DNA repair exonuclease (Siccirubricoccus soli), 413 residues
Amino acid sequence: MRFIHAADLHLDSPLTGLRQRAQERASHLADASRRALEQMVTYALEERIDLVVVAGDLFDTQAADFNSALFLLKQLARLSDADIPVALIRGNHDAANAMSRKVTWPKNVHEFGARAPATWEIPRLEVAVHGQSFPHREVPENLVLRYPAPKAGWFNIGLLHTSLDGRPGHAPYAPCSVQDLRNRGYDYWALGHVHGHEVVDRNPHVIFSGNLQGRHSRECGPKGFVVATVEGGRVSALEHVPIDVVRWARLAVDVSSASTVSEVCPLVSAALMREVQASGDRTLAVRIVLEGACPAHVSLAGDPTTLLAECTGVALQCGGDVWIEKVEVRTSHAAVAAAEGQTAAFAPIIKRIGADEAELGEILAPVASGLSRLPPEVLALLDVDGRNAEGRDRLLALDQASVLRRITGRVGA
């Protein structure tokens, strides 16, 4: 028997903060989660998969267009026509009380209820799937402790949306330990909620499939689902199948050797070429992070519009379908102190302001006030925050470079 373990489809996840930057690519990015699901279903049909389990967060929010539900129903109907059973649970994003619309699934689909854990038996496969949906968005209790006993002689799958014992960047929902999972006596735990693929344990198999499609620059690398092969009542093989339509990448490029923007471009080009080759024929959404102490710092940080245009031009010559989502300048401004003339005189003034907490607070107060009005998810995507020390230092560095570039266009030009 072979089954697919998927999770975190997040159909029609909103492009928070990205629509303006993506422009004509916005629709392509927004549609990526649907096309990834469609490809997973096609894989299941072509490979004659026996069972599909989905560990929560099929929808991104209750506000999703009803067309999201219709699209999902269409894909599940394709599996129903091939007599492939589907077991699914709700997670924190599509919890039972969060979705305003009730979906009537095809006959092949079993959705676990939210009141208590239960078991769904599939006699022809001799498989018992155990699971529980989230009753509401925040579930602080350990759901595993109430999961049913395994069915003797059958292959037992536990379906759970959980942070397990904690994962960075993920809310602590339905927390539990690996030992809690072992104690249930199941053969495989199909986990959701964490968007990175992870083999947590192999005795028994405790697996995060990761999400089908990356949604932003913090969800980089191959995304997809897991195919498990079962022989003699045991998992004999595991395969992570990348199915992402748009692949996100965060490229750190050391530009410490560059004296000008023109010298930065070949370094960016080489990094992009490597990533294009690794991503195949997918659309590549890239955040470029320039690092290192370099003479070109003022030009890089002081003129972000030109820098983005230069990097976009480089991307067009890399052969693949590449979109530069953002260029992040994290170069050092140490070279500024060696500049001549007015620039050298001005740099210490900015340094003094940065060391004066009172003056600095007066300058950054309007920035912090404006940022405080933005939702947390927008701040995360913008990757700019003047409300903490690290974010404040980054804003000051960028502002210094911008001012110095205005004084003289010769520095690092």
Remarks:
- The two ends are 63 Å apart (CA to CA).
